[in-house]
From TrEMBL:
It comes from the Bacteria. Residues 1-32 form the signal peptide. Keywords: Membrane, Signal, Transmembrane, Transmembrane helix. SUPFAM superfamilies: beta-lactamase/transpeptidase-like. Residues 62-363 form the Beta-lactamase-related domain. This is CubicO group peptidase (Beta-lactamase class C family). The chain crosses the membrane at residues 503-525, 537-557, 569-588, 600-618.
Amino acid sequence: MGDMKRHALLPAWLKLGLGLALMCAPLSTALAAPGIDPGETIADIPREALDAFAEAEVHARLSASKAPGAMIVVVDRQGNRYARAFGTLGPNDATPLDVRHHLFRIASETKVLTALGILQLAEAGQLSLDDDIETRLGGLRLKPEGGAPITIRHLLQHRAGISNIPMVGSGLRDARDHPALADYLAGHAPRRMRAPGGGIAYTNAAYTLLGRIIETASGETYENYIASRILKPLGMEHAGFPGGSITAPIAQGVFVSPGSTTTFPAVDTVTRPSGDAMMTAHEMGNFLVMMLNGGAYQGRQVIGRKAIDSLYGECWSADPSLGGRCLGPTRILRAGSPIYLHGGDYITSMSAWYVLPDQDLALWIGNTSSVPIDNDVFEAFLKRFYPPLGAENAPKATSPIEEDIGGTYRINSQTMSASGRFFELLMPGSEQIVEIGASGISVNGRHYVRIAPDLYQASGPPTIDGDTLRFRRDAEGRVFELHFNARSATKIGAAGSAHAARFVFGGLLAALLTLLVFSTARTIMAFRRGTSKAPPALSATACLLLIGGTIAALSLPTAGPFVMFGFPPLFRVAQGLWVLGGIAAAALVRGSAPRIDRAAGIATMVVAAAFIFMLVRWEFL
């Protein structure tokens, strides 16, 4: 409004001059949205073409994703930039979304900032990627002690074999309550779960530990190091972490569930190195220009060339045909060209960046909804501007199909909390079910053909991850893992399959409920008959406490978006209820109760113990 008022006061001759200048201006400039930098093309793509693409593929997806807003940024190696925003700042804020002045929660894209910090320190000789992490964690020791050394490189590639840790801590309401990394890790250190150096198991814990290593190696807090060594040198005036010097408005989104959308208050996390940074879309463009230019931005070497080369070059995969997991980003291969990427999933926003070094181009896509649009928009971008990279897969099948690869595979991921993974287990499709067919294999309904021994590829439209599968065998020749591009899954027997677990958990819960109903009915009958009410009431109380503990431990994800967080107080409540329930059942068994009530107490203890054993066995507790 301010600009419009100023224009209304211009002299008539100046208005005429401006009008003629605008008429003679290039069409691309006339089409440019506020916040777009000058430049006719970006990596030889005309601005008009990018504008049409953004309208057709980003703006058009707002309705389906129910997002209040969305943004896209495209940059090239020369620093030319296209940036466009659609929609509003939030579901209850009609302010037009602005690529320069509104912050976006980049979530797990923060991990690459953390990786760059580690690589800077390695380049300066302050640490080595082959260091045992326990020599770099300020005295922290992972349990159980005495395992094989976990290196910094293992953490960077998500191959450390450790568990996840809660992202939100006890009493954390806002940034003022934010604990130091050292204090939080002292009480919430991840555990060793498998030998390091194996398959990829994405976990926020790995990058939280890396953040702590940055602190011990540099002598600075994680937030200060990233801000002073990466964000500020990249000219980022608004970027940072919650609770710091953040003053710019933050884009707000919605969580979408069947039939409704919900707004949620912003959640600050204690695992900041794994996913808590914010920046504007324009600032993300600065970052991507640096990523295309070997660490340089506007003539300054922000990140050393050696560090960037390591970031891109040291990738692990189960097969050369797979891109694999690098020292931070994921690498995929399309028509022989590498593409590096990393996504970020927040409660109410989704985004991802993609670097195409052979094409001298990078882009970022984000929207403020729990329904992502980034990968679909990216695939459409490739299909529109780089058809060979977006071409459909047409693998040539070979034979014979290995008969022993069929079975159930469990994804090696520790992203979610215990409660989140429990509810994921109860949902169909939580595992990779490999079925053998006449012309290939089927994995959760998607068809793959054999292209080499133990190597399979899907035909049809490409996807970011999952087009090619590699089955790995142990020294005895038995298949033990299934590898995607940046994920792995362990083959499990029938006793460990999701189907068996659902049956066992369901049966145990049904048994506890049956015992509760039985004990409650016995208590009611005792009141009517005038007989002793204490034994059946105690039995009912024991069942109720044990069921209450189970609900407390596993009910968190019913809130929807909080499936990704773990709240220690809730688990402490669960443990307390379980203990009280066990004491009540034990008192019943040891007392002089009627035989039937004692039997109910024993059954309650056995069922509860079996349930807790299953939770531990499946690594939910």
